[in-house]
Amino acid sequence: MIVRLPGDRFIAVDAKAPINAYLEAVEASNERSRKAALDRHVREIKSHARALASRDYAAGLAGEVDMVVMFLPSDALLAEAYSRDPELQVDALRSRVLVATPTTLVALLRTVAIYWQQRALAENAAEIASVAGTLYERAAKFGEEFAGVGRSLQGAIDAYNRAVGSFDYRLLPMARRLEEMKVAETSRRKVTTPQLVDDAPRVPRERD
Q: Can you give the pTM of this predicted structure?
């Protein structure tokens, strides 16, 4: 089994650990035979750990090996080996081999899963920060452009009101004179002064 880690790294799990000597110890008819079989069990585990350490898993899997796990299918297999050699795990770890049972393997896999989750959260947080920064920049740009629209509206209102003033001052008196001369009697319309626009773009107040 291959356990993937971030950065093209992985943990290789090997499940072909030797158990024959342990089975002989379980079936031994006396204590002397049992201890002898357990000693062989320890030697076989150490030999297998050295073999795992020498395998080039990285070449076949295109990545960097963090460690190789030697999986033992029972906690008793490792407990009995520890009883004969308490330094067994330490020796294996020096070669980046972890001797694991179902309990420790599940704990290892759970740790890796949590690591992936934390990495995903960190990546999401970085992406959120990036998107938030882009959003802020765009909001600032939009605000500047929108303020330009407001200034243009104000300019248009000022120009309109000036035109109304010019109409009222220059054209309306002439229209009144034409009305007095009965020139506009046949017209269905009447010349009137357009209404001034008093409303201006509102400047919003910043809120705390």
A: 0.56
